[in-house]
Design a protein that fits this description.
This protein is α/β, with parallel strands linked by helices. The chain has 18 helices and twelve strands. Helices cover 42% and strands 16% of the residues.
Length: 378
Amino acid sequence: MRSAVAAVSSSCANLPPSTREQGFDIWVSLLAKRGSMHVEEAPHGYEPGNILVTGAAGFIGSHVAAHLVYHHPGSTVVGLDKLDYCASTDNLREAALSRNFVLVRGDQASSDLLLYVLRTHAIDTVINLAAQTHVDASFHATLQEAVRTTGTVRRFLHVSTDQVYEPTPPEKEHGHSEAARLQPINPYAASKAGAEMLVLAYGTAYHLPVVIVRSSFLMGLQLIPKYLMRALAGQPLPIHGRASDYARSFLYVEDAVAALATVLARGEEGEVYNCAGTERTVAQVAQDVRALVRMASGSSTAVDIQTVENRPFDDGSYRIDDRKLRQLGWRPRVSWWDGLRSSLAWYRDHGRQHWGNIAHVLGASHETEPPALQPPAS
C-alpha cells in the first residue's frame, strides 16, 4: 500500500489530464478502502508472461487490470479498449499508476492492430472481456484468428454470462451446471452463446488453449445500478410486474476478479466454469436498497417501491451452480450486505463527480440532494 502511494508522483503521467487534475484524491481514498483486495496471494498454478486484457476500460476490465498489475509486477499488462459509451479512462486510475500497464486505444475487430499488439508486447496470455458486454464484439473471430496466427499465446480466458442458459425453472433445486444445454432467449444472450461456440471451436480445431468463465450479475464500485441511485435521490424503485419474484445471482466485482484469477491459474484448457454469487429476487433487492438507504441516512421515511407494467419481454430467473469453480479453491469473500454498503457509500460520495449528470440514466429528473450517508462499517 505504501509503495503504491509513493509511486503516484512518478506514474501519474500515464493518466489522462482530467484524471490527474480531478481524480487523485478520490483514487487515494478508494485505494485505501479497497486495499484488502491486494493483500491476498494470487492463486498458484499457471504463471502468465505478458497479458492482453480486452475491454480493459470497462467496469470488470479495469478491476482485472488493477489486479494483474499488482499480482504480476514482472508482466506487462496491455489494456485494449475502443473507449466507447461503456468505457472510461477514469476507470483505469489504479492500473495506470503502475509502470507495467499500457493502454492501447483501438478496436479488437482490427486484425492488424491485434497482430501488432500481440507481437510487439510478446503477449502469451489473453483475457477477453470485450465480448462480455458488447454484442458486436461477440460475432468477431478476429482476436482468435490473431492468436492462432501468432502462435505464442499459452492461455486464452474468455468471459461470458450466465444468460447463455435458459431461465431457471422455480422447481429446479440447483442452478444450471456447466453441462446444461445453452438456450439463450434474447439477442444479447444469443450473441454470448455464439461467441462461446466460436472460442471453443478455435480451441478444438486449432488447439488454442481456451478456458471460459460464465459470470453472474456483478455489483461494485463505478457501475451505476438504478436502484441505488434512485434511492439516494429519493425516487421510487420500480418493479416490472411479474419480475418481482425473478431471482438473480449477485457477485461483488472483487470476488469476480478473484474467480477469474483462479481460473487463469488453475482452470483446465477447454473447460467452462460458472461463477455465482448471492441469490436475491428483484423484490428483495429493492427492499434491501430501500432499507439500507433509510438506515444510512437516518431518515424516518423510505422511498416507495412501485409495481409498474410488464416489459414487452421478461427473461425470468437465472441461477447457476458453481461447485466446479469452488473445487479450484475459489470462494466469494464479500457478502451481499457488505458489497451493497460499500457500493452505496461510493455512489453517495463519488457518483456525481465520476459520472456527471445521470438524470437520463435514472429515468427521471431530480433536483433533490441525496441524504447524508455514513461510511460502511469496517
